[in-house]
Amino acid sequence: FATTTEYFRYVVGQDWKQLVHQPNSTVGFYDAQNKYIAFKVLESLIPEFINAKYDRCKFKLICDDLGLANLIVRGTEDLTVVGLVDLEWSYIGPAQLFGSAPWWLLQDRPVNSTWDCEGEELPKIASRYFRYLEIYTRILEEEESKMQGHEEKELSSLVKWSQTSGAMWLHMLLSSGFNDEHSFPFTQLRAHLGPTEWARRGMEFDHPNELEEFAARKVKEMDMYQEALEELEKSKALVDSGEMTKEEFIANHKAMASRHGLRISVDLSTEP
Question: Residue 155, exposed/middle/buried by CB under 10 A (0-12, 13-18, 19+)?
């Protein structure tokens, strides 16, 4: 990727493809329509959350799973970091993503249901996150000031920018894979824009015929998926009881998946 903009568009495009092609990516007619509009708005917002200074700069090594649990320190009395573990979520990405308010401050992903908001009130865990973010940013700024050549505090300034601009919410969505529009980062992104502005942008993609066609297709796909899943579970019960061999199950599963045009995984291991 040549630019941060190109990278962001690609990742959001992958989420869009998952919404379109995954049979159970929606749970009903109106849910399908709402997700369609939400993802279209999200894609349209990308240019507004690009820091111009970092759009064409070199990409950096990023670990999306960085956190206290992945740090090795000297001991309980000396917390000097001497190593890192669990680097399988590391990749080369835009510097803007690296210099962002991190999601891992509480060792929990903000897309988990415990972060969901009820109305306008933030859940306790979200309030705690913002307190930790203030500590993180303050300490980062203090440590940068001690390092020769970092007097401009470039990293902490970029983290602050991600928060004030609202880009941090887009960053969290990009780092979490396919997202529900009701997830904490998504709701905070909408809150940052404000309900009026979000509604205005949504109207740009409110094309009744297109929305109805998309939603009707997703409902049909979901019905087929549920039917196939029920058939699959019945067959698996026969395998568990010994009335069907694994070979017979696999053959039936392939035929069923081909008939419905679906791909469904199942665990046939005998372990609990």
Answer: middle
Q: CA–CA separation, 164 vs 80, rounded Å?
A: 31
**Whole-number pLDDT of residue 87:** 87
Question: Helix crossing, 4-21 with 29-45: angle to 10°?
Answer: 170
User: Exposure string (b/e) for 166-198, b if CB count within 10 Å is 16 or more?
Assistant: bbbbbbbbbbbeebbbebbbbbbbbebbeeeeb
pTM for this one? 0.85
Alpha helices in 46-183 (DSSP H): 95-98, 124-146, 154-165, 167-176
- Dist CA 205 CA 240 (whole Å): 48
pLDDT of residue 269: 61
What 8-state DSSP symbol labels residue 72?
A: E
- Which residue is it, tokens 């960053």? 171
Condensed to tens digits (0 to 9), the pLDDT of residues 51-65 reads 999 999 889 998 887
The two three-digit tokens of residue 87, written as one number: 């680097």
> In this structure, which amino acid lies at residue 92?
I
DSSP, collapsed to helix, strand or coil, labels residue 164 as helix
Residue type, 256: M
Instruction: Please report the pLDDT score of residue 272 as a whole number.
Output: 42
Residue 54 identity (one-letter amino acid): Y
Cα gap 60→169, rounded to integer Å = 20
Beta bridge mates, 72: 83
As a whole number of Å, the CA-based R_g of the chain is: 23
